[in-house]
Amino acid sequence: MQFTSFTFAVFFPVVVLIFYILPKKARQIWLLLASYYFYMGWNPKYALLILTSTVITYLCGLGIDMFSAEKKRVRKAVLLAGILSNLGILVFFKYFYFLHDSVAAVVSLFGIHMKASSLDIVLPVGISFYTFQALGYVIDVYRQNVKAEKNFIRYALFVSFFPQLVAGPIERSGHLLSQIEEISRKPSWNFDKVTRGLLMMLWGYFMKLVIADRATALVDTVFPIYYMFDGVALVLTMIMFGFQLYCDFASYSAIAIGASSVLGIELCPNFAAPFFSSSVSEFWRRWHISLSSWLRDYVYIPLGGNRCSRVRKYFNIMVTFLTSGIWHGASWHFVLWGALQGIFIVIGDMLRPAKTKFHTVFHVKTQSVGFRCGQVCMTYLLFLVSFTFFRAPTISDGVYYLERIVRHFDIWALLDGSVYTLGLDAKEMLVFGIAVAILWIVDWYYQKKKAYFDTLVKNQCLAVQYLIVLTLFVMILVFGVYGEGYNLSLIHISEPTR
Does the N-terminal or the C-terminal CB of the chain have fewer CB atoms within 10 Å? Predict the structure, then answer.
């Protein structure tokens, strides 16, 4: 079940209505049933998989908590059993074909030819998200950051809570489990949380339907046959893909955060105006925050973090970002994309002393608006270049894509009208431009106030609040891209694979 589907438009109000009508003690069970129904909307068989992961990590948490800190070997053995079993499930369903094809390619170099796999494995939706969330819980119990949850209903709801089940944010047990426990005791209705939640959902739908899905029209037109277009079209497609990717992921997070708030539960923020970042390291503190912080706490720091030699620190950075790359997708171009992020951060750290000396010698005003804008532009350029490999089907396609930009760039193509034949006509480009301007204003507000869209609206007078809400609502209704039957400039648009 997708957030943008008609089914969800019926499902969510029903869930909320019954949630607030039911006695408080029954609400956890109701949300658990609703979450499994939501997940089974993709494929009923998926429910068995998430239930298996839930049972394993629940029992591991109890097993770790059963033994005292002195019995470290036993606790570690239970921890490893939980980690390996869940990673084994993830690897089988997500990486089997990738590993099989990679091994086949290597052994073919020695004249050995492997048969194609006869298995028909369907990737379960959201498996990467709920696996990391469940593993984080087991590790937190082992570290004694949280106590093992003894109530299976509460723990199962923690793993499967439907707003953030398939696209995050990846929640921590200490943050979400305590709120789930409070469901049975806290007041029935909080008007401020409900209105803020609805505002975040409105903003999420605006980003998804007006910006992300509109950008998809152009991106899906050019990328599959990129070798037929000139450099200007390819640069424009890179930019559009950046907005598509940002608004696609950020919109799902905003809708999840908003839907949870309506139910009285607060989820962690996941995006914080990342295109205002002045360095790649800052970008990763603003982009997919829940994943970045998860990798920091459960991969980077256990490897030694920065409390070691410089060489080891760089190694830790590379391992962390390679993990991020392979988490995003089972293909070598995702591995390369992750490696590029690590390389950018390592080079930035290595050059920091030289940059500091250069700024001192030449009296560079590092706090000036111009200097900051230059840093933001450079970070954004690195984002566009590296994320080309994220979208390209293979590494060689990504390299050739960038090569065509350099070899076939004709600035005059901006003036001959050819940019309006790439999937969006002049009118749709104008709508996209206006929507992006609104996005920029909201992100700029966060940059200045460290507050999200709901706070931006709440801080206005009542008339302006209604104007903002009405404007976005009308834009969603009039300019939203709805369903697979919608056409823009005769270009078919389908929902991006998640």
Answer: C
Rounded Cα gap, residues 263 and 372, in angstroms? 40
CA trace torsion 348, 349, 351, 356 (10° rounding): 110
Q: Is 488 helix (H, G, I), strand (E, B) or coil?
A: strand
Q: Which of the four pLDDT bands, split at 50, 70 and 90, describes residue 185?
A: confident
pLDDT tens per residue across span 238-285: 999 999 999 999 999 999 999 999 999 999 999 999 999 999 999 999
Are 313 and 337 in contact, with CB atoms under 8 Å apart? no
Amino acid at the residue 457: V
Alpha-carbon Rg for the chain, nearest whole angstrom, is 24
Rounded-to-integer distance, Cα 126 and Cα 130, Å? 6
Please classify residue 72 by burial: count the beta carbons closer than 10 Å to its beta carbon, then call 0-12 exposed, 13-18 middle and 19+ buried.
exposed
- Alpha-carbon distance of 278 to 483, in angstroms, equals 36
Are the beta carbons of 341 and 280 closer than 8 angstroms? Answer: yes
Eight-class DSSP state of 463: H
- What's the distance, CA 392 to chain centroid? 18
Greatest C-alpha distance within the chain: 74
Q: Tokens standing for 218?
A: 């152009």
